[in-house]
Specification:
Blueprint (H helix, E strand, L loop, with lengths): L14 H15 L13 H13 L6 E4 L5 E7 L8 E7 L19 E2 L2 E3 L7 H16 L8 E6 L10 H7 L7 E6 L4 E6 L2 E10 L1 E10 L3 E2 L8 H14 L8 H14 L8 H6 L5 H5 L5 E9 L5 E2 L2 E10 L4 H12 L4 E8 L2 E2 L5 H13 L3 E8 L5 H5 L4 E4 L21 E3 H17 L1
Parallel strand pairs: 3-6, 3-7, 7-18, 9-17
Antiparallel strand pairs: 1-2, 2-6, 4-5, 5-19, 8-9, 9-16, 10-14, 10-15, 11-13, 12-14
Helix pairs in contact: 1-3, 1-12, 3-12, 10-12
The structure holds zinc ion (ZN).
The site of zinc ion has 5 residues, from loops.
């Protein structure tokens, strides 16, 4: 475990900046892999680590377990004006598993090399957990109260849908979030450098919803040597292939419109949403993030049928990962069924809603001004995430959720590609930048 090493920081550096990389490293060293079956070893240890770091400067965090070992840490910091609504800052402590053989540095060693902190969770999202801890500890230590109450939540189980983390807390302990009206968390706040005069910071204001489903076709079972006009595998595969090749129409939501307008402006070109392929090419790594937010998608991901080569099975199944834009769930399902045809039976296996909030108001202004104070060419722009986060849970309490984990990144770093990827790493300077921005942001929140 790392001590607080303010002394090791560069001259003029704040306490939070000096310790943020170490906090990130220490969190990465706690293996919190979430396999989706409850077997992950580390969430309890991470919750205790976080609680200890907060208690060191006078907070009284609570550790809440939904099931044995599935622990989240919650704390409330009193603000100057208790009559104002509170701000939630949330981060998850679990990570997706990693296969050490594929990595340059061991994914759970938390190496600091070449100016980067390496390891599983370095960008998703122990970076933000460490930045939050560093800022809060610095403020507690120097007695700088936030303008309003802040609720901190370090959560289990985000990587498997948050059932044992955020969903549990929202369902069973909503009182913890009493008075909270706005929240920041992942996945946003990172930079995309357009040119030497402009750096966009993508703030997440919307998320696609998810509809994971199982498809089944029943056919006529029989001997593989005989004629069979009702083969379940053939029928299912045709439907799945149609779906896999199907392109859902472009649908421009409010948040995507806003992003495209900003991008048009920044690139100085008119963007045609119907012809985004050319535009996406100019976006480098973040094209991965943006491309899937222009339309609903349905990707076949699993197939199952049969048990012997000379037996035609009576049934075949497939799984599909479906994602819909805010406001387009009904259209998605109608179109999906039309593509699949009448032979396919569809059941939902997991569903979570789409969320969207406006990119306006004092909190957004606070993000913009905190960014500009640290990076004069910064401009905050809203974008839609094609995946999902714990924001889905918190929005159920009427909380406006933003993805804002500020990082100024070197343009050549493929940041989007590192989420759940190999050699996940974050520059130490980016973490320090995030600490300074978050500190300013809290002052103005
Ligand atoms: Zn994440």
């Amino acid at each position: 475990m790392g001590g607080t090493s303010a002394a090791s920081g560069a001259a003029g550096e704040g306490f939070g900046e000096a310790e943020v990389a170490e906090l990130c490293r220490d969190l990465i060293r706690i293996d919190t892999s979430n396999y989706g079956d409850g077997s992950g070893p580390g969430e309890r240890a991470a919750a205790e680590f976080v609680a200890e770091k907060l208690a060191e400067f006078g907070l009284e965090p609570q550790i809440i377990e939904s099931e044995r070992g599935r622990a989240s840490t919650i704390a409330r910091i009193a603000g100057e004006d208790p009559s104002r609504p509170a701000l939630l800052i949330h981060g998850h402590t679990d990570v997706v598993p990693a296969n050490a053989d594929d990595w340059t540095h061991h994914p759970f060693a938390g190496e600091i090399a070449d100016g980067m902190v390496w390891g599983r969770g370095a960008v998703d999202m122990k970076d933000m957990d460490a930045m939050t801890l560093a800022v809060v500890r610095d403020r507690l230590r120097s007695g700088r109260k936030p303008p309003r109450d802040i609720v901190l939540a370090f959560l289990a189980d985000e990587e498997a849908g948050g059932v044992y983390g955020a969903h549990h807390l929202v369902d069973k302990h909503p009182g913890l979030f009493e008075g909270v009206n706005e929240a920041i968390g992942e996945v946003g706040g990172f930079s995309f450098t357009v040119n030497e005069n402009l750096r966009l910071y993508l703030v997440e204001t919307a998320e696609k919803g998810m509809h994971w489903m199982r498809l089944t076709v029943d056919g006529t079972a029989g001997h593989g040597s005989m004629t069979n006009k009702d083969n379940a595998i053939t029928e299912l595969c045709e439907a799945v292939a149609r779906l896999g090749r199907h392109k859902f129409p472009v649908r421009i939501t409010k948040s995507v419109r806003h992003f495209l307008d900003e991008l048009s402006d920044a690139l100085g070109v008119e963007l045609d949403p119907e012809d985004m392929d050319t535009t996406l090419e100019r976006l480098g790594g973040i094209a991965k993030l943006i491309g899937a937010t222009l339309r609903n998608t349905a990707q076949p991901t699993m197939l199952g049928a049969g048990y012997k080569v000379n037996v035609i099975p009576g049934q075949a199944t497939a799984h599909v990962d479906g994602r819909f834009l805010p406001g387009y769930e009904e259209e998605f399902l109608t179109e999906l069924d039309a593509v699949l045809g009448p032979r396919v039976r569809r059941e939902a296996v997991h569903h979570d809603k789409a969320v969207e909030t406006d990119f306006d108001g004092p909190l957004v202004a606070a993000m913009q001004s905190a960014l500009v104070a640290e990076d004069p060419i910064a401009r905050a722009v809203p974008y839609t995430l094609s995946g999902g986060t714990d924001a889905k849970s918190f929005s159920e309490l009427g909380i406006r959720c933003f993805g804002f984990a500020p990082l100024r990144l070197p343009p050549e770093l493929d940041f989007a590609g590192m989420f759940h990827g190999v050699d996940e790493r974050v520059p130490v300077d980016s973490l320090k930048f995030g600490v300074r921005v978050l500190d300013r942001f809290i002052d103005q929140s």
